[in-house]
Amino acid sequence: MQLPVHDQHVQAGARLVERFGWQVPRDYGDPVAEALTARQAAGLADRSDRGKIRLTGPERVPFLHALVTNDLTALSPERGCYTLALNHKGQIVAEFPVLPWGESLLLTVEPGERAFTLSWLQRHKLRRKVEIQDVTTELALFSLVGPQAPAVLERWLGERIILAREHVVGRHWRGSPLLIAGNLTVGMPGYDLLLPAEHAAAAWTSLLASDHLRPIGQDAWEVLRVEAGQPRYGPELNERTLPAEAWLEQRAISFTKGCYPGQEIVARIRNRGQVHRFLRGIVLPGGAPPPAGTAILAGERPVGAVTSAVYSPSLGRPIALAFIQRELTPGTTVQLTDGRSATIVDPPFLREEAS
Fold first, then answer.
1. Residues of the chain with CATH 2.40.30.110
2. Which helix (H) or strand (E) holds 37?
3. Residue ranges for the chain with pLDDT beneath 50
4. pLDDT value for 13
5. Taking a C-beta distance cutoff of 8 angstroms, is the pair 255, 270 a contact?
6. Model's pTM, two decimal places?
7. Cα dist from 149 to 37, 39, 154, 316, whole Å
8. Roughly how many angstroms between the first and final C-alpha of the chain, as a whole number?
9. Which of 59, 156, 263, 344 could form a disulfide with 129, with the two C-beta atoms 3.0–4.6 Å apart?
10. What contacts 219, CB < 8 A, 6 or more positions away?
């Protein structure tokens, strides 16, 4: 499947790779320069391969509210939220932002999780007055990130917009409906821009005419994500992960709402128990990033495993996210099974002010 701006990616020299049935830009020839430009100025990523699910109908909010961990009754036309869906063991089966858009709610999910999330929603629909639509191919999704992102958006749109994470505003661009949502996934000022696919090519070309902006591919986005210490569904978040292990309680969980699947486990962990591992960062002195699954040792004792690893051009060394036993705190030196030593840190690896 091709992205709405496939031809523009090819013309820009993108190296395409297949990801969950989509042809997406792996990079535009220099992923290191792409990551550095985004970190220092601004980058534009085409993330239209993300699954997009629209909920409509008078019971859309109470329907979803009863299934997820966050409080959807606090939604407003300009305020969304991030939430999780859990199984009966309190482990994560889905995660997504919930973005109000007119008379609907829009969910965006990792490309590989679209089919499961759709079936999970349909399975719980019963007789509720809600319609669930897969609108993945109908909408384009661009992520504009970096310290210059607010200025780029202001020049493109003609007004200055600053949004907190998951907060939204609805606008029009050349007569096309446009949803702008705050995105701090990579630890910098950022926006998700959602608009009809038929207007995507014109919007992409128009955005890239701005100074201090370059397109960034999947590899650069992954570097920025790991530098920001942001967990992703698949490598970090899955049916083996408890929210507390990934530090998601404050962002994704309401402890004052009513019942939802897995709530009892979440409450028990908060009130009486502790998890046995936490998502940490590790910094290596050099060499190639370790493969996912690489064991982490304290002496000869396994204490965790790498989930995502990249070379950080901003730090000049490889870094990784990993779940590590809770007693090993930041500053501790551990070893990898390839013989290298690494230092445990608390993510994010780069700390920047998101204006």
1. 276-355
2. helix 31-40
3. 353-355
4. 96
5. yes
6. 0.96
7. 11, 10, 8, 24
8. 36
9. 59
10. 26, 27, 31, 34, 35
